[in-house]
Amino acid sequence: MKTDQLRINQLSPETYQWYLTYLEAVDTQDVEAYSRFLAESCEMISNNNPPVQGKEAIAQFLTDYWQSFASLEHDLLNIYGSDSAFVLEAFNHYTRHDGKSVTLRAVAFTDRNEAGLVTSVRFYTDVAPLFE
């Protein structure tokens, strides 16, 4: 994960560290670690696709999705919001299975409950170049 381009971060130091660990689970494609951040009733929405409902369904969705490329690295640009509801603007650096690198601009909206677990995550990016 890259943080050297992070310009604005409105999260508290504690939540920022929490979020870095959360994103590290994504970057390492560790579905077990990622699932520990989710509330049981979490909802995930990717672009205009139907919502994925529940922690178990999200874990299966990500397991399948993460197999479609070799690696992912987040490059954080801005984080706006509060510790319970925030949006990340980032570059996502992918490596495809054929070795080609693809960088995509992305945003992700995250909501957390009082226990600090993710209740909703919505991410938006044009992934077409990744699969060309």
Briefly say what this structure is:
InterPro entries: NTF2-like_dom_sf, SnoaL-like. With 132 residues, the chain is an alpha/beta fold.
Instruction: Tally the beta strands.
Output: 7
Largest sheet: 7 strands, mixed
Helix content: 10-25%
Class by helix and strand content?
alpha/beta
Based on Cα principal axes, name the global outline: globular
- Provide mean pLDDT, rounded: 97
H-E order: EHHEEHEEEE
Under CATH, the topology can be stated as Nuclear Transport Factor 2, Chain: A
Number of helices: 3
Unreliable residue stretches: none
Number of domains: 1
Strand order of the largest sheet: 1-4-5-6-7-2-3
Q: Which architecture per CATH?
A: Roll
Indicate the proportion of strand residues: 35-45%
- Distance separating the two termini: 24 Å
Cα radius of gyration in angstroms: 14 Å
Name of the CATH class: Alpha Beta
Polypeptide structure, described:
There is one protein chain. The protein has a single domain, classed as Roll (Nuclear Transport Factor 2, Chain: A). The mean pLDDT is 97. It is globular. β4 and β5 form a beta hairpin. The two termini are 24 Å apart. By secondary structure, it is an alpha/beta fold. Helix content is 24%, strand content 41%. Strands 1-4-5-6-7-2-3 form a seven-stranded mixed sheet, covered by helices on one side. The protein contains three helices and seven strands.
